[in-house]
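quick one before i forget lol
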Amino acid sequence: MARSTDKPDRKPASGAPREPFPDLVEFDAAPVPLALSSRGAPLRVNAAFTHAFGWTTEQVVQMTALELTVLEDRPALEKALSRLDASGEVSDLVVRVWTGDRRQVLCRLSATVLRHDPGDVRILWRPVPLGRITEPADRTGAQGRPEAPLPLLEEFDTAPIPLVLSRPGLPRRVNAAYTRVFGWTSKAIGNREWSDLVAAEDLPVLERARETLMAGGEVHDVEVRGRTPDGRFIRCRFSAMAGLDASGQTYSLARMVPLE
């Protein structure tokens, strides 16, 4: 197979020589992360991409390219797509990419249009990691204490701390630790809202937390009062993060650690 892009003299903004993109026959074995997409929908990633970012082909095909990118960097990616339409190539765009466990990785992103037939666009992306931006183990709570990361979704049910899963913005599932502390079961909260689970006076705090999560941020160590089914209130420290599950659906994961 002939090379779709064979331009060994291309140079990034720094002026350093850069190797050309590999042929698709070399895609899976390439040592750098690669993703193949239509104009905005991922179609396939190689093993190096999975190693760097945690996403498999089965997961990314249910997402969009924008969903893989940190919210603040999505306008830059949209501009890159427009430049690809015009010139067929983008070089050295610096963006932050989400990993499967909701870390952010700073990348130098390059892309080449391999095929631009009407209705059949193919783009080869190369996101080269420049270093991790966030490491959950390094998070620090509001009081300056080292804070354990929020558990991954697959650890939800067995986590020893009370957790609430929401989609989208409505509580849908709690773990056993939450049931032990606050009394609610997943079945009991199935038709309820957050206003049933916290004190009414604390709802503005949760609304601000929701806005932060929608903007791609995280919430740590906010004090709220959790409500039990019998009307009692328990002071707790609330933390939350947003993520995408294996099907590409958005969820938020909240941790409510009792203070009493």
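fyi Confidence is low (pLDDT under 50) at residues 1-20, 132-147.
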